[in-house]
Design a protein that fits this description.
CATH architecture of the largest domain: 4-Layer Sandwich
Strand content: 15-25%
Structural class: alpha/beta
CATH topology of the largest domain: Metallo-beta-lactamase, Chain A
Largest sheet: 7 strands, mixed
Number of strands: 22
Strand order of the largest sheet: 6-5-4-3-2-1-22
Number of helices: 13
Bound molecules: zinc ion
Number of domains: 2
Distance between the termini: 6 Å
CATH class of the largest domain: Alpha Beta
Radius of gyration: 23 Å
CATH superfamily of the largest domain: Ribonuclease Z/Hydroxyacylglutathione hydrolase-like
Length: 468
């Protein structure tokens, strides 16, 4: 077996895309794009496949609908027109919302002169490629044998507990009387969230484990179990509402926002916060919430009766006067962007509420260094109330007097849980991916310590890794 990371293995998380060549069958695991880059630079190194006459792609398997795993799919379909594309049914539905939105965003950025890169694909391109998509249930075998493949190969999805539709994939190759089992975790969350349950893994051991390592360097994650964080956030939201303030929860449209809406609903049911507190939502997250509801009987849920739209919520008013009106009464705003980038709704609301002591801004997701969410949090932690922060350059520095707190609601497994996956699946070889250098190094050291017989690899982008 040959493995080559085509994007996102080194330093930055970047674009997730992994090439597997097994007995003459070529498989791409994920076709992400790098959210930090524009145009061709954001796409994985597909030319590496074309450069080698003996390499080819028969199948593309998608683990979940986050942009760093699917953003280059239309480009991959163009480059490898004969490949079949496999995913779960919810991922398929999410792609129908997310890829056209990405095409429109690329076009808008080009027209507005934000970038000089032409869009990688148009909405028309998406129409023609979508008939290639094949959907599969969890824990059901599907065929991955290539045209020139020497032996039958099957795939099987396992719930990855990360976002709606997320899956790890088990690839089984019947190789000349020997069965080889390869498991790709995708992004994997072992702990149950509020809507979706934790990950499930194959019952039998595997030979090769392709393991994500996002939180490998995070010393804090295991100290903040989710249930404790839920309580802490509930108390903070209640405190702000009791003072007559407004709660802003900046959240990513896919996954975190739906989980937050569900959590606010639980707070209301437990009488932790007043039942009539308005919850405002906006933008693409509303279409995604609808997909959560439509798939509740066909994908894993903690409670399949629960509907995100069963939670009363108001559409955020358009225009300044409507927004100012909404901000006048105690209410909760769950809006994008999660990192509070300029010219987004969460940034706009933060500018309006940050200078008043009664309000609260609660961060529940990852914030890249120097993003407005990160600047706000660091100022609050290091300098305390009254610190000056530039939330928006147009607005200039402003004093932050509202409560600013961070909560840990990651959809990724903490590093103890990641080691538990190795323990459970007993692989001969572990290939570490989807993590910064430091994160993968910690994983390598600890797998080496607890399981000295396991061969641990930490390839850089483009490296060819051969596994017997
Ligand atoms: Zn993800
Ligand atoms: Zn990811």
């Amino acid at each position: 077996m040959l493995y080559v990371p085509l994007g996102g293995a080194v330093e930055e998380i970047g674009a997730s895309c992994h090439f597997l060549f097994v007995d003459g069958t070529g498989i791409l695991l994920d076709t992400g794009s790098d959210p930090e880059k524009e145009g061709r630079a954001s796409v994985p190194d597909f030319h590496r496949i074309h450069d080698r006459p003996d390499w080819h792609i028969d199948h593309i398997v998608l683990s979940h609908a986050h942009h760093d795993h699917i953003g280059s799919l239309p480009v991959a379909v163009r480059e490898f027109p004969h490949a079949h594309v496999h995913m779960t049914a919810p991922t398929r539905k999410l792609l129908d919302t997310l890829l056209p939105a990405s095409a429109r965003l690329q076009l808008r950025r080009r027209m507005e002169g934000v970038t000089t890169e032409d869009p990688l694909y148009t909405e028309d391109d998406l129409e023609t490629s979508s008939y290639l998509y094949l959907v599969h249930d969890y824990e059901t075998d599907f065929d991955l044998t290539g045209l020139k493949g020497g032996f039958p190969i099957t795939g099987r999805f396992y719930d990855a507990g990360h976002i709606l539709g997320s899956a790890g994939v088990l690839i089984t190759a019947e190789d000349d009387g020997r069965t080889r089992r390869i498991f790709y975790t995708g992004d994997t969350g072992l702990q149950s969230q509020t809507i979706i349950p934790g990950a499930v893994y194959p019952e039998e051991p595997v030979d090769v484990l392709l393991l994500e390592s996002t939180l490998g360097a995070d010393t804090e994650a295991e100290k903040y179990p989710r249930r404790g964080e839920e309580k802490r956030l509930g108390a903070s939201v209640a405190r702000v509402l009791a003072k007559g303030g407004v709660v802003l929860i900046p959240a990513f449209s896919l996954g975190r926002s739906q989980e937050m809406i569900a959590l606010m609903d639980q707070y209301k049911r437990r009488k932790l916060i007043p039942d009539d507190t308005p919850i405002y939502t906006a933008g693409m997250m509303r279409a995604i919430s609808d997909t959560y509801d439509k798939t509740r009987f066909i994908s894993p849920r903690l409670n399949e009766e629960f509907e995100v739209y069963g939670v009363p919520q108001r559409r955020l008013p358009r225009g300044n006067s409507g927004l100012n009106e909404a901000l006048r009464e105690p209410s909760i705003f769950i809006v994008g962007s999660g990192m509070m980038f300029e010219n987004t709704i969460s940034n706009k609301i933060a500018q309006r509420i940050a200078s008043h002591e009664k309000n609260g801004i609660f961060l529940v997701g990852f914030a890249r260094e120097d993003s407005p969410a990160d600047l706000l949090l660091r100022a609050a932690e290091e300098k305390g109330p009254g610190a000056e922060v530039v939330i928006s350059r147009a607005h200039g520095p402003q004093r932050v007097l509202c409560a600013v707190e961070r909560f840990r609601f990651s959809g990724h497994s903490n590093r103890r849980d990641l080691l538990g996956i190795v323990e459970e699946l007993e692989p001969e070889t572990v290939i570490l991916l989807h993590g910064e250098q430091e994160a993968r190094q910690w994983m390598r050291d600890n797998i080496g310590y607890f399981h000295p017989d396991v061969d641990v690899r930490m390839p850089e982008k483009g490296d060819e890794v051969f596994v017997d």
